[in-house]
What we know:
mainly alpha
Amino acid sequence: MNKMSEQKFDDDADQGLKILYRRTFLASFGGGLIGPFIPIYATQLGASPSEIGLVQAINSVSPSMAQIPWGLVVDRVKRRKPFLFLGSLLYALALLLLLQVSGVVEFIIIILLSYVLSAMAAPALNSLIGDYSSRIGRGKTLAKLNAMASMGSMPATIISGYILYRVGGEVREMYRIPIILCFIFSLTAALITLKIKGEPSYEETFSIRGWAKALRTNPYFKRLCMLSTIQGFTMGLAWPLFTITVVKVVKADMFQISLLNVVSASTAIIVRRFTGRIADRAGRKPLIVLGRTGLFLIPLIYAIARTVNELIIVNFIVGILMASSDVALSAYLLDISPRSMRGSHISIYNAVAGSFSFLGSVTGGYMLDLCMGMGLGFEESMMTVYLISIIGRLMSGLLYLTIQEPYKYPAKFEEELRKIFEEEVETIDRIIAEYRRIEDEDIEWFEKILEQGSKK
């Protein structure tokens, strides 16, 4: 590639990333208006614990499971822009059907349909990010992309929570405005992808046989998928219980529920200032291990939560863990995936992890029903399922210590953390010194005015 071609590619990549950042912000704003309230919506429609488990699984997992066929299609067609456009557009159109829903079964079908259609955008987005970013700067790129997602969903969730809190009344009427706003922003996100001018071409040729061979012979990918099955199941066990705790134990209102999502999102935005740099300098593994092992704290605190204050604490922890592992895990997947098969590799990973999370969530709901059917009280049944999830999350998180990095990195995790801490302390000291200087100048100026006034 000559210098002119390299410069054109760099310019196209910079422009493409800017469009993807804007698209991510708008899509996340649209999703943030309704996504966090999907399990609550089902509960308000009268869903049972097992139905809540199914809804929670669909809400969290169905997009991942649907990514397998979409990822294969993206890699086969070698076009990403049409899938980004259609994913946002069809998701927006499907959610409009919720305006006519009155029963739990209809609700579940529409949610499943909307997320399956939206799933086509994910492998296309990840594939483009892999092409537009270099390995040494990929962590920062993904951190910025995730920050844009949080910055979009956070205000949307607050606005939607306030609307739901103020409107009240019949369930269908409560969600009318958020659903319409979700459609508008998702449609805008779809349209903005049309501005992407060009897509990097693949040098390799896609084939099902080559893809299957890569999956069999890629030790990094095989181990990561294996670990995701164990943790995915133990994570999913507690999902239906989270919704029941928020609605029936803590009895949080809609605005408080929106604030909980804001706490986790805002914390993630702050922490991601550093995780992208750490992932690029010290490697992906330390952050993945930290984020995945720490997930046991979430059901632990939910199990003892009785007020919104405990839920605020757990969502603060969620923000830290999300920022720690999400960026590093996405970068790791791109590192270990062949360029022409990134879409299918990421899709198969998400589907493997998602399918076991789905199974865990459904199992968690049925376990709760089973425990209560056996004569245990509500609190004892909840605590039993929570305890199983806590132990499973801790043990499966520690297994991530066995993954290996495909590349060597210039710094160590502890050294990079210390360096970041020292730089932040220096920045704070600089700000304090500047504030004191300005304050001294103001005092000196005020004293001069008083002195001139006394002379007169």
